[in-house]
Structures are given as structure tokens and as C-alpha cells.
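Board notes (copied after class):
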Amino acid sequence: MKMHEPRDLTGIRSMMFDLDGTLIDSVPIYFQLMESILEVVGLPPAPRSLVAEFMTGGIKALEKMIPEEMLDRKDELVKECITVGRQMSWNMFKDKVQVMDGVHELFSLLVERKILIGVVTSTHRIAIERKFTPLAHNGLKDAVDAIVAIEDAPARKPAPDPLIECARRLAVPINRCVYVGDSHVDIRAGNAAGMLTIGVLTGLDDDETLQAENPSWIFQSVKEICGLFA
């Protein structure tokens, strides 16, 4: 655990989470999925850095995967990538993606303490059910009090808008919320919103990258967050 200054969770009424790489172990699957999508569509393999950018930045990164000589078909290729991805991802999330270690224990603790649970994700609303399959299979979906998808706020992370929207839906003041995520985008959004922030090293970014965003805490996984309530 690393902490920049003494803080605790006294008075916290909501804990919000990113989804991919934080609650579900989907990051490796995304790299496999993107490799398969590009192959089916007829595009060359993309570097890991660009796939990671796609996971946090969306369509603009996908457009960068298209070679210059194919840019005249950009809109067509992007649309095809999205269509193929939706078809392929259903079975991947249903069969291969697991809930992160410690999520069950942390959710149980939060429910016991009447701390509301929110999920703020850059996932599109149409894919939420698919992405929540691992949580549903583990009996955790019903513990979530609010879900904010990418369409639910005027700007996406790292803007604070989606987190502020989640706090509004939960009817919890911003200063009583904490946001948990695995990427610099998550920490930047939480800090911009005025929340406490927790980085976890189970997804896209390493310790150095998360430290640069000045989170309140960094943990190896969500399991260690339980220790803050001891």
C-alpha cells in the first residue's frame, strides 16, 4: 500500500468502481479480442499501447490502427470492427472473464456498512449486460446501486462528469465518495471530481503511472481495500 498523506474512509457513503481491470479481469481478454477483431477485419496487428489507448479512449484509438493506405475506408472499417467485436465479446465475457480476487469480500463489507456501490465505466450501455456477466454469475450484480455508462454523462473519463453523475444518482455528496480504478484515467477523473481515489494494480497501468496522478492510495488489488475498514 502507498499513501500520499494520512487519510481514512470515515464518513464515506459511496464507493464507486471502474469495471475493466478493477472489478473484472478483462484486460487480457481485451488484448486477445482486439487481435482477433483486426485479423477478421483484415487489419494489421496493433501494438499493445494502442490497444490500451482504445480501452480508455475509444474510437479515436481504433482509427489509429488503420494503415494510411486504407484510410479511405476508415468509417467502414471502424463500423466493421465494432460489429465483429460485439459478436465475439459475448462468449468471451461469459466464459473467460473472472471477477477480481477480493470483490466478493469488499462488496459484502460495503453492503454491511451501508456504503452504496457505484460502477462508472466507459462501456457503452448496450454492452453493460454482457460486461456484468461475471458479476452476475457470482451473485454480485444486485449489490450495485448505480451504473453509469459512457452515454450517461456529457464527457467521458478523465473528465469528472461520469463520476459526478453517479454521485447524483446515488444522492451522495461528492466529498463522501471514493473512486477505485486501474488506470491513470480513473485517478484523474476521481481527483477532478473532488473524490478520494484508489488505484489498483490489476489492470492497465503500473505503480509509477498511477503514482503520477497522486491517488489517495494504491493497492495491489481491491482485496486490500478491505483493510481500510479494519
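Comment from the instructor: The first strand starts at residue 2 and ends at 3. DSSP finds ten helices and seven strands in the chain.
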